Every structure is written in C-alpha cells, then in structure tokens.
Amino acid sequence: MESVRNIRLFLKVLQAGSFSAAGRQSGLSPAAVSRSISMLESDLQAQLLYRTSRKLTLTEVGKTVAASARVIIDKMDELEAVVSEHQDAPRGLLHIHTRTSIGVNYLSSAMVAFQRKYPDIELKIWLTEEHQDLIENKIDVAIRLGNLDEPSLAVRRLWDASPRVIVASPDYLASHPPITEPNDLLDHNCLTYLDGRYDDGRALWKFRKSGQEDIEVLVSGSLQVNNTGILHCSVVNGLGLCLLPIWVYEADLASGKLVHVLQD
Question: Which stretch of 62-71, 87-96, 238-247 has the lowest confidence by average pLDDT?
Fold first, then answer.
C-alpha cells in the first residue's frame, strides 16, 4: 500500500534527519523520498515539513501526524506479523458445507489427513441435502454437485460429473422378472431420491442413447427419501433398484454386492 510506504518514509526522514540519509537507508534517491513526502502531504492536505537547504523541521500538524504515524506503523507491523504467521502455519476456523453423501463417502477420510497436516485449523462441517447460503451461514468452502448457479463465487472443479446408473443386488435380480429395457422397470420396486417433483412415490428416470431419442419412464416404489445413504443401504440389502451417481456404489459394484442394470 503506497500510503503506508509513504508514512514509513516520513518516519525514516525524521529519524535520519534528511531526505538524502533516509534515501540511503531505503535504497532510494533523495528526489524519490521527497516525492513520497509530497504525496503524503497531498493525501493529508497539510504541510508536514518546513524545508530549507540546511534542515527539515516539523510543522505543528507534522508533529501530530508523526505521533499518530508511529502508532499506525506499529499496528501495521503487528498485522503483517499475524498474516505472516497464518501463511506460515494456517490456523483458525474453516466452515465447510456439502451433501451428506459427499461427507460420508469422501470428506470423512480426507478430514483425518487434513487435520493431521493442519493441526491448528478447526473444522466445522455441515452436512445437508440442500444448498445453503454461503454468506448468510458464514460458510468458507462448499462442495457441490451439478451446475453452479451462483456465478459470483470462486469455483474449482474437483471432478467431472459422474454418470447416473441403475443398480440392484444379485438376490433382488434373481427373484424378480428380468430387465432388458427401460419399460421393464414399471414392474419393479424402484427406490427413488425425493427431489420435490413428485410426492407420491414416483420419479422420472431418463435414458439416453447416442443417436436415439431419450426414453422417460415414470417409476415408482416403496421408498422415496432425500438421502443417498439410506437409498444405498436399501439397495444393497435387496429392497429394489436405485438410480444414483456411480460414485455412490463404486465399491459395491467392484465387490459384486451390486449389479449394474441396463448398462447399454
């Protein structure tokens, strides 16, 4: 900040006794020091120094400014020390918000490593299924899914959007009619995510295939809930089929606990 720099030079001039001496200590020419003092006087709209060929003398206003300037510089030095300390070793409260499924599947393990690396940072983690107002709730970091609808926010993409897939347990599939096309889902118990569009147990599942028209199926089932953890547990235990982002089930698909339905 130029004004702070000029205040520092003003105090250095008083300490050194001349523009030349202050310039030597600061690595500046006497003319550059003089310009800085003139800029400070212009900003304050007051003459701070009487200048003669032999010496510099403080004006009455200059004496008052000099006393206040020392306080200002001391406070600035304290502030810079605090900032430097935080940059060297981050500390303080970090408020994070994300969906429950993200917190359980990803944030819980990352949190442990983060706190070991930054022991002076306190974490406040808020898990909900709805977006929250970052400013109103004093949230520092939000991890979100989908498209961002707040263009004023600073954004960093963590991963590309995951495809949504239908899964079921091997036991469920073995005891129910085969599923070879989307409309076969009408004869199955489809566990759905409650998103506010339907409140009667139904949900619209869309299927897209390259070069073909999209297919929409209005499915229904015995469970509709706005929590992916409950859906995940229910489908693993053979209650029905479920459509969610593939990252929710990756481990279960790899282990064989769940089977990908209608892969094509």
Answer: 87-96
Whole-number average pLDDT of the chain: 85
**Does residue 159 lie in a domain region?**
no
Has residue 154 been placed in a domain? no
pLDDT at 87 over 80: no
227: left (phi over 0), alpha (psi -120 to 50) or beta: beta
The pTM score is 0.55
Distance CA 229, CA 106 (A): 13
- Domain housing 47: 2-88
Average pLDDT over every residue of 147-166: 76
Measured between alpha carbons, how far is 89 from 84 in angstroms, rounded to an integer?
Answer: 9
Same-domain check for residues 39 and 72: yes
Residue 215 lies in a domain: yes
pLDDT class of 188 with cuts at 50, 70, 90 = very high
Q: What is the DSSP-derived secondary structure letter of residue 45?
A: T
Q: Which long-range contacts (CB under 8 A, 24 or more apart) does 11-14 make?
A: 11/66, 11/69, 11/70, 11/73, 13/37, 13/49, 13/56, 14/58, 14/66
Is 151 inside any structural domain? no
The number of distinct structural domains making up the chain is 3
